[in-house]
Amino acid sequence: MYRLSLLASLVLLNACASPVPPHDQGHAWVELSTTASDLLMADRLDGERLNDGRYFQVSPGSHELLARFQFEVPGGGGVNIMAEPEQRTCEIRVRYADFAAGQRYRLEARPLVTKAQAWLYDDQRNVLARGRVLRCGTF
């Protein structure tokens, strides 16, 4: 188990250390944001799995983004507040029809007790879409 945890940590560190590709001006750029203690990663774009979970880069038009949001629930989210914290993962889907080439967008997520909330913003901080939580659990 220790070796598996170590390997997973090394893979994550390597991904964080590799540079993010340059922004293609023919595409829209979607950055992901959450608090430092939580993790928000891109998972799928229009049903296709992504190689790099740190961002979405999409062609103009309509797209469906799927992200995974991990956060800690104090007391495991149950009645016993003295229990160990529990790591929760939520799958969040965002659909937006008007991505524009050269524009930057921001997908933000935050915990809401044992669930999550997410919004897609433009560069002026206008809310463009709300994320739909598909499922949450300890997976």
N/C terminus separation: 17 Å
Total separate domains = 1
Radius of gyration: 16 Å
**How confident is the prediction overall: mean pLDDT?**
86
In one word, what is the shape?
A: elongated
What's the helical proportion of residues? 10-25%
The number of distinct helices, counting runs of at least 4 residues, comes to 1
What is the number of strand segments? Answer: 10
Global structural class? mainly beta
How would you sum up this structure, described in words?
By secondary structure, the protein is mainly β. It contains one helix and ten strands, in the order αββββββββββ. A hairpin with a 2-residue loop joins strand 2 and strand 3. It has one domain. The chain has a five-stranded mixed β-sheet with strand order 4-1-7-8-9, with no helix packed on it.
Blueprint (SSEs and pairs):
Blueprint lengths: L1 H16 L10 E6 L5 E7 L2 E2 L5 E4 L2 E13 L12 E14 L4 E9 L2 E7 L5 E4 L1 E6 L2
Parallel strand pairs: 1-7
Antiparallel strand pairs: 1-4, 2-3, 2-5, 5-6, 6-10, 7-8, 8-9
Quick summary:
Helix content is 12%, strand content 52%.
Features:
mainly beta, 1 helix, 5-stranded mixed sheet, 10 strands
